[in-house]
């Protein structure tokens, strides 16, 4: 089966600019996650979707980050305006459904550098 | 916040030796999972162990879980150069929460 697709692979922007990331999960996976991974740390959950509804966005900095999942399939994560501390790898993952004993399938991530 | 704490933070061994990594967590879990991440890549799911299981095997991987001590270990036997990567434990609570990851163990296999 095809994996989780993410684009772009790399992005360099200046602070205060905006940026958007795209994710296409594995077909049939109801749950989609966005994680932020700062260099040297483990991934931190930003937002979790079940189909096109938000399950958990408690760690999403809502003053600058937004995300949506179009028709319960693709998802976009946006940062506006970006700060230097947003430099990180943004990982998208999907699983069959929330809860339960399922592993996640991760995409290769988007490496964001804010200068 | 990060639930799991891996130990050690870094580990360097010779090819052919066994590698053991440990993970401790704080709250009750539904399952615990281990992932591998090669430099600059996404995470790859290795193995999942349920809270009512004590040990699980997959190829050269052996995972143990002690819920009374809130700890898990990952053993990689007969290590290979290709095993060089960062390894993360991640915990899933009983509800609809997403996985919570630790900071990882960076494993280097010396040829």
Give an overview of the whole structure:
The complex is a heterodimer of chains A (115) and B (111). Chain A is an all-beta fold and 115 residues long. Chain A is built from no helices and eleven strands. In chain A, the strands form two sheets. In chain A, strands 2, 4, 5, 6, 9, 10 and 11 form a seven-stranded mixed beta sheet that branches. Chain A has a four-stranded antiparallel beta sheet with strand order 1-3-8-7, with no helix packed on it. By secondary structure, chain B is mainly β. Chain B is globular. Chain B has no helices and eleven strands.
Strand content of chain B: over 45%
Low-confidence stretches of chain A: none
Helix vs. strand class of chain B: mainly beta
Say how many strands of chain B there are.
11
Name the average pLDDT of chain B: 92
Strand content bin of chain A: over 45%
Task: For the record, give the distance between the C-alpha atoms at the N and C termini of chain A, rounded to a whole number.
Answer: 37 Å
For the record, give the distance between the C-alpha atoms at the N and C termini of chain B, rounded to a whole number.
Answer: 36 Å
Q: Please give the largest β-sheet of chain B.
A: 6 strands, mixed
Unreliable stretches of chain B (pLDDT < 50, length at least 5) are none
- Form type of chain A: globular
How is the main sheet of chain A built? 7 strands, mixed
Query: What's the average pLDDT of chain A?
Result: 94
Concise structural overview:
With 115 residues, chain A is mainly beta.
